[in-house]
Queue: 3 jobs
Job 1
Amino acid sequence: MSEHKTMTLTLIVWRQKNANDPGKFETYTAKHITEHHSFLEMLDVVNEDLINTGKEPIVFDHDCREGICGMCSQVINGAPHGGQDRTTVCQLHMRKFKDGDTIYIEPWRARAFPIVKDLIVDRAALDTIIQAGGYTSCHTGGVPDGNTIMIPKPIAEEATDAAECIGCGACVAGCPNGAAMLFTGAKVSQLALLPQGRPEAAARVKNMTEAMKECGFGNCTNHYECQVACPKGVNVKFIARMNREFLKAQFA
Amino acid sequence: MILDGKCPTGPIEKSWDKHRFDLKLVNPANKRKYNIIVVGTGLAGGAAAASLGELGYNVQAFCYQDSPRRAHSIAAQGGINAAKNYPSDGDSILRLMYDTIKGGDFRAREADVWRLSQVSNNIIDQCVAQGVPFGRDYAGYLDNRSFGGAQVSRTFYSRGETGQQLLLGAYSALSRQIKLGSVKMYNRREMLDLVVVDGVARGITCRNLITGALESYAADAVCLCTGGYVNVFYLSTNAKGCSVTATWKAAKKGAFFANPCYTQIHPTCIPQAGEYQSKLTLMSESLRNDGRIWVPKKKEDVNKRPEQIPEEDRDYYLERKYPSFGNLAPRDISSRSAKEQCDEGRGVGPGGRGVYLDYADSIKRLSEKVICERYGNLFEMYERITDDNAYKTPMRIYPAPHYAMGGLWVDYNLMSNVPGLFVLGEANFSVHGANRLGASALMQGLSDGYFVIPYTIGGYLATVKPGGTNTDHAEFKKSAEDVNSTTNKLLNINGKKTVTEFHRDLGKIMWNNVGMARSKESLTEAIKQIPVLRDEFWKNLKVTGTGAELNQQLENAGRVADFLEFGELMARDSLHREESCGGHFRVEHQLPDGEAMRNDADFSYVGAWEFKGVGKEPELHKEPLKFETIHLAVRSYK
């Protein structure tokens, strides 16, 4: 392995024992970090140091470490996922930082996402929204040949743009209102754009937005922070589409 | 013991239809009396839980992540195969079966592979109906791309994120059943034991990863859909939480582990950059559709910039060695070829462990825009990790552990030798033989989950009374006590080495000795070294915190403890299999040109191992493989 110049960084990290603990920031030093470390690998190094000195490591959610499972969830220097365009925390690399930097690391903060421990939050509310209608009610088997449902390429592409959402919740964390409008709008739009999703479109948008409210998410006041925070580049136009679907549903 | 796969007999074309008819049914009113546990919510588990719930069974589903949508199936990029023959390029169910059997180097069951190929077409229809946004052509029809090991275009895709879209399809079907109340979902639970009562699988013991509490769940059948075990190598393309724990615990309760030596090393991954590295990232095999793989012909050129190496000094070794498949040679062959080039000193990048994947020709032929449309997200990912722009300079790639073809032994009904224990998807051994072709993992997961288990589990349940056991049974108490005592043991060693250090050490032993090229010496060495490391683990492990809270080190410690036992079995299986086939390459067994040399006379069987105790030699059981439809032949891609 080639030699790399290393960096030393100061981390100011949110530590919270459990849901009931008030929590506070603690300061740590990350040493021997190269530009090729991912952000999570940098935290791994810090955690190994902590464990070796008998201290509790920082817990954070992560799994695939390739930017697709949506598990990692940290606010870095005030920006969900660290602010690099279309990048999750696990794909953020330390070459975006420089030697001597101070980095603030916090969990997602939103009313609908209670903190579980340190940087881990409970995002069950997002599952609740999908359970309210984020599907077509088709049965296993008994469906027609795939090519009998033709979908114009631009429509298929737009539906795929909406379907890019990985359900990480960065949109909620980035929104001053803690709204899940981009998350919900993406699923509503994906299915509303496709012919397979049309039969249930009205009920879907009503039920999903209702669940959104019940879970304690806020509403949209056009800050567009969600789109900036989204690691998959999901566009706010899908919120507009959801609003149109919602309006249409009132007359359905 | 000679194992019986209970495959249907008669003409292969009718085998699954006939079998489905022969299976007993559970009447609709009785279904709700049966409880089924599904562990894991990837393509296999998610599809199974949704479909079984919809049929009317009471399903309890479990995943270790915070949501069922996060299972690692989501990371599959390239696509899913089906024998639709939409491009009219000569595909058929039989050809998909042929390619899969040949791709697996004649080490899979014919009947299972036929069924997989047959239902592959239903999967595409199902996913379209769910609203999975597959790639479309300009007429609005489903589009196809090519993948390794096939000469037809049969791969359906959604950009470079097919796994994500298929998993979210299964997740949405599952969410619907959760809402309807037919599936009860348990997130952030890790299965730490299988409960077996009087020889029958009756439930599981889980750890609630938030509170640390141990929980018992009883059922009439248990489905393990818990994925593969290649994190035994530490560095792999799997998610960090992927482990052998669920299947290994089942193996320790009597389920046979089949063909653990069959591991897939994927040819197109981003090379390792440093010691600290926590995982390897895969770049979809679909990249090989348009990328050309090469290394410098001359060793002295390896440190030059690739642009400085003229065409005549480049060796496009796959195109040279396998002219009919070229850059789309199957994964095992492509990986081994890359290793050969690097071993010969022609590898590029840090440590000489890399080969080029070059798009210059395709960009010239098709334009940067077209390449961006096809692979944009992969090029972006590559740049984020390496800081290199692959539109301007070739990617560097190197093989990495990716998939486990081996897994728990199951019969044609996907039931293990422990009655009531079903195993689906990557967790079982069934259809990929010794090597899996690209775009076939998604196919198998969804096939098992949507179209196989809903039939075969009924055949089993129809023979047992519902509600046979509850969690008050002594076996549940004993299981919880055993798990509890292991947890306490892990917490109280108070040694000096962290879990990650042990995992890394194990990974090195496995990669160096049980990796892409194995020999009697290397395997014997692994069998010697692993127990030493295991002893050290139980004497010198350091885990901070307690068991009564969210404790990620403790979670990892349990997983690594299981890998330390399982790794030895993998080495033993590799040592016993005196042949080379698919992902299992023994240097002693190769043809003069370096290709794998199978030994059909002695090894045309499934090797299923019975656990006999930690550090004790396991017992081998064999299931002979018969080839009646696809004739045994030397596997050639030249």
Job 2
Amino acid sequence: MIQNLTWRGVLLVLVLGAGFYSALPSFLPPKDKDSSFLRALLPDRTISLGLDLKGGISLTMEVDMEAALRNSARRSADTLRRSVSDEKLAGVTVENEDSLDILVRYPDPAARQAVLDLLDKSYYGLEVKNDAEGVLTVVQTSEEASDVRSLTGRQALETIRNRVDMFGVAEPDIRPQGEDRILIQLPGFDDPARAVELIGRTAVLEFKLVDDGPKTAEEAQRTGAPPGTQVYQEKITDPATGAESFVPILLRKQTLMTGDTLTDARAYVGDFGDPRVSIRFDGRGAREFGDITDRYINRRLAIVLDDIVYSAPVIEARIPDGEAYIRGSFTMEEARLLSVVLRAGALPAPVSVIEERTVGPSLGEDSIRQGLQAGGLGLLLILVFLLYYYRWSGMVADLALLMNFPIVLGALAALGATLTLPGIFGLVLTLAMAVDANILIFERIREETRRDRPPLAAVSGGFGRAFWTIFDANITTVLAAMVLYQFGSGPIRGFAVTLIIGILSSMFTGVFASRFVFDLALTRLRPKRISI
Amino acid sequence: MSVELIKPGVNFDFIGNRRWAFLFSGILIAASLVSVIAHKGLNLGVDFQGGSLIQARFASQSADPESVRATLSDAGLRVSSVQDYGEGGEREYLINIQNLEGTGDQALSSLAIAALKAAFGEDGVEIRRQEMVGPRVGADLRQKALYAVYYSVLIIIIYISGRFEQKWGTSLAFSAILLGIIYVVSLFGVGVGTLIITALIVTCITCYFMRFSFALGGIIALMHDVIITTGVFSFLNKEITLSFVAAILTIIGYSLNDSIIVFDRIRENRSRNRRGNYPEIINRSINETLSRTILTSGTTLFALLSLYFLGGPVNQDFALALTIGIAIGTFSSIFIASPILLLWESKAGPAPDAGTTKAGAKAGSAKAGAGPPKPEADSAKA
């Protein structure tokens, strides 16, 4: 060991140098603000601060897959119904009442066979679940259902990404978690209600006719809506007080048009100073909208967003250019949000927030300050104690301890890891426990010295005997930390990562680096006894 | 001269007094269980139970926990606790709100914030942190946490039995079988809590019969540490949060680290001195590593106490859990982990590879004659 002193020194310098090199950018202004030559030489990756330190929102959304499957069943039922009428199968009816089951009723065995033949063409992705007298219960095949699930998940992710990008949040992190969950992190955003409004809104825009039959909406609400109609709620804002209320309104069930063909949506202030959202359809949509406004002139057209009626103006003239506006009861901020949501498109299924964590910026700053203060003091106490207890050898241990900083920070930066508050704690704790390696070695060296071994032999014996103990003891902690990583989320993962990196680094400094310093000192200074 | 906390020649009779240590631990464990039962289970935080949490700072001096609670209750919310999080006279509270049946979870915190702002002024309330966990997520996290604890135990069994007793094959097979059984049982919809506790007990019993002595020592010590730490938290009525689980897993790693260092010395001393009687070897090993055990725990506690007092209220409980765990872990590595190795000695004679064939070993361990100054004579007398 003593012979390769030079090489060991070179290795140590290389490791520390790499650590500094990798860690340095995290303490400098970002690259786009500093275009100097030296800065360009440094790596791009930095340690990013977790939301708990930087402030921001972390949301977990769950996509309502049941609803997506029901929607898909409804679409399949529609297709099947069309095919049945195309094939002119007399007496065959297809029913789907907001459930996964599609009921196909048939009058005679021949019709039954015709339906089965139709289903056998297989491109519907439907299969017979139950075959009773006069009625077939048809459901989606499991492959079809799993396709719907994964497609819905991907679409929801894409839509949410679009919305967040359009809204303009810096460095958002949006990723799927399993099939039906999406984790969204918005740093520097501290209004969860607004975030949920942006992300969580299904944003299904529909145009429906207001029913002008004899029954009023109030009556329909009490005694049941006439066939083909449904009671909706209209949102009304009192212009004087700003108080919101809902009144029932009776609409035709049939959706005349949806927001699918929308190309643009903008918030603006209307003639009466009321915030509005203008919408514009593409060519096909504009034609469709023109036809509708032509056909239903002088009747009321309800603009329904996520099953709430925003307004139901009377169509005064045909609207040929595919432009319209939504006037309703919202503030300018709400109008802006709504325009983003409409532009980014509707979600394929409703989503709900199942977990939400928001940290305000002031708390994050406090946490960093407190974490650093507490950690700093703790480490200082340890450094002083080691110096007092082990004298010159304590100095070596202190040196080894300090070497962990560039190594751990460099490793964190190279991995692009996120530093969280538990992460800072993990770091302090690891360094505190890192001392263990040196304590084990020093206690061994003391034992050797008591047996009157000369310094070099004592050091060599101490390190040699302690190595496997240190190895075994640390590996178990690494294993526990790996389980922790597997199990944890967000801040906890940060803690596990720093713990693992810290342990590996401290084994390197405790065993390799401090041994090098000892050997260097012993061969150069040749002391009669070790100060330990 | 060097400073020495523990003088070199020291030889405390840890093994001889192990019954007292066991009694002490037994009382602590019993007290922990009683506390958990008396509190009707653990005080699960928002992470595991679902619900909302708001950390708010108030400008108004009239905002005290009672008025905050009253404001929210009047708004129809079920407040489970209002903790003081203020430092240096700040009016800052951590408010826990239970999920209501049938309301959107998201709406809950908006409702709460609106109520607070109405009562204490729009600018009089600063929302510093806000968390909401849906009931399903809470249940998921609870499961994951329990599994995490158990998996780490299994991995540790494999590692220790492999490294210390060359039983890689048996311990791997044993763990695989246990995992399989747990998987099958979990299919029948047994509660995860019951499942994991049963699995832990089964694991310990199997370890005993398979003579995974080091693994059993390590596991019992760490379960001891985890139970007592949880017990203290229950006694103080502290909340069990995600960071508590992180602390527990760290304690598991640390407790084992501590035990393994003693085990390592036992293994070394035993291979060097195959004639010596086992209890005495164990006692000597504990004494030889004593100064390291205390020094390392000491430095770790330095850091933890500093985190506890200066690290801010958000992570105080985390530091507290670790402090308790490491203090208890130090005790268990001395008094619990290693004495367990003697379980097989007193019942069925010496462990097969212990190298002690003398009948004295039995008497020696029974009377635990490893005390100074002349352990041999002591056990011979017995």
Job 3
Amino acid sequence: MSPQTRSVENWTLQPLTDFVREASVRLVLVLTPSGQVLAQSGFSRAVDVMSAAALAAAIVATTGELARQLQQPPFAALSHQGPKHGFFLATFTSDRGTLAVLAVYDLDVSSLGLVQLFYEQLAADLKAASPKTTVPKQVLAADFERELTDSLNTLFGR
Amino acid sequence: MADDIRALSAQLAQDPQSLVFLRLGEALRRKGQLDAALRVAMNGLERHPHLADAHDLYARILTDKRDYERAFDEWDMAVRIAPNHTGALKGLAFLYFKVGDLAQAESHLEAARKVEPDDPSIDQAITMMRGGVSPPVPEPTVASPTVASPTLGALDEARVFAGLEGANEGLLLIDGAGRVLGGALRDRAGADVTDAVAAYLAGVSQEAARTAKLLGLGAWNGLSAEGQQGNVHLAHPTPEALLLVVRERGIPLGRLAILAHRATAMARRWLERGT
Amino acid sequence: MSTALDLITRVRGVRGAMLVSADDGIVIAEQLMEGIKGGAVAALAASLAGRLRRAMEAAGTGTSVFWHLQAEQGALLVVPDGNSSVAGGGGILVVAVAEPDVNIGLVRLELLRVAETVV
């Protein structure tokens, strides 16, 4: 069963809740380009969040590298549409560093236009709410698993 | 009950597009014929994929079958289509309670209470939940889709548009949750389409309000549409009520707007008498 | 396409005209006065068009050939092309944003004419 909207970093919660309501999206992840999830909505299992975050981070890295090889700025957004669902992946920079948003929507209840429209608001709200970056701490292998477990517990309300 | 099911099955066979499947699916569910209920709900959903009530019915059957994951998805979809669908809000609250997320359960019940402050079952569910007792599986809000809002029950819904042309076939008054308050609609073949149209109108109204607001057009006061076989005009006599006028294609939109204006004034007076 | 949209924007009181993908709610072409957000108009008009289509199908009036949202400070006028009557049909919406006191009949005619031209 899906928890509605949960965040590891509280400042992301209200903007994400508003985005989910306005754009009628089914699943959303807010993550860093390295795949660290800051907030999620609609996911039912931790394993789904982990794989979606890893895949989204890989897409961000791949398209970023493609853009670099074409000597142009990173692509702003990526969209794919199937017969029933669409997904939208975009990045923006905030005081928290570069952040990516992955949104999955049902074509019956939303559209690329609506998702794009309210994504702009989400990015603006997250930029406004994001805390100033502190010096990134070194993540040791020993800490990694514990931090991941803590994040997943928060994201699923355990 | 068996006779009801037979009668409803016959009605559905005669008009597969109708919303009778909601009552048939619910009757089968209550009788414990869950597989049959599931088939009816799925067939209905295929024909009416954007109908929140259809997702709500499907979710209730899935809950009876203890398939809570899929039930959640269906109620979630119902709320996305109709954010004020109290059946779905109560259903989500029930499922959240089941997994021990009391905060989410209560927040969904509170959301349902905002929509239906006079529904005692919501208060009961909140009280039970706080006492650690599971709230009951929500009962449908659609068993009798044409029943008027309780606060307006004392009014004679047949008289809301009395004296106005097409009062019983082309005028419809609904509340913000898509429940019929008065009037009726028939399609060109004479079939009663009141419930089906009412179910979709709340979504149209919400989207019209959002569109006007976000585009800086101020509050919306009317939506006219010219169809291939008929014209419609949607207005809101009060912030919570919606009025739809439907006429054949030959009636121009301008005349329809005048008719809607008269019907709006009548509906407003009728609604004021009920409060 | 912008010449086609000229037909609409030259009507007095029209603040902008657009072609919008009905399924995606994104802009195909636009000619807008400053201050009108094309992306927002496209997304919201397509969403409202989809919901209205379902309600009108349920009412048995067939899909809409023209619709008009009247608000206190403006109006949105839309003509869906034939393909917009089916979800996923790849249809186009011809959209105008106008002042509240615009000549609706005239804008409707121009929208219909543009719909015939671009499809």
